[in-house]
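Appendix B. Chain record.
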Amino acid sequence: MTLDISIWWQALPMLEKIYWCIALSFSIFFILQTILTFFGGDASDAEGDADAAIDSDGGIDFQFLSIKNLVAFFTIFGWVGVVTSRSGLHPLFCVLWSTIAGLIMMTIMATLMYFMGKLSENGSMNISNAIGKTGTVYLTIPPARQGHGKVQINFHGFQTLDALTDEETEIGNGAVIEVVDIINKEILIVKKKS
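Structure tokens predicted for this chain:
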């Protein structure tokens, strides 16, 4: 068996040997990369600052040159090169077809990553969306902004937040309130809902 592979390998033209080396080695990288992606092993890719792109709520930018895309390029480049050189095409056309196929694969991968990045959701809470919402008092709110109380309100999930009131009487536990304003981007101004 080993002798057969050795004879087969020696009979190959140099270009086809190069294509076989590229195809096999990058196929192994591609398989490992795919397996690691399922287990979160791709989190440390050196593809730029993806966190900054997500924080700006624009998703991940279109990245044509990345490690994943280069591995995909050389995998397809190698296999198309093997097939075209075995079919008897002129070496120039083999290189041309394998390059085109690799570039198409890079474009597909970059497009997939771009649209998958757009699916991300910003999980940060925008407290200004609480204005007009109703909730209940969890800890008594002292009158005329003399101290903080706590309210429970349902927006971005169930939240317990600090609250003040401008009313002349305290708002006791269990009272229904409505959010009328926000100060310091974190404290709710509430009134008793009638």
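Further analysis of this model is presented in Appendix C.
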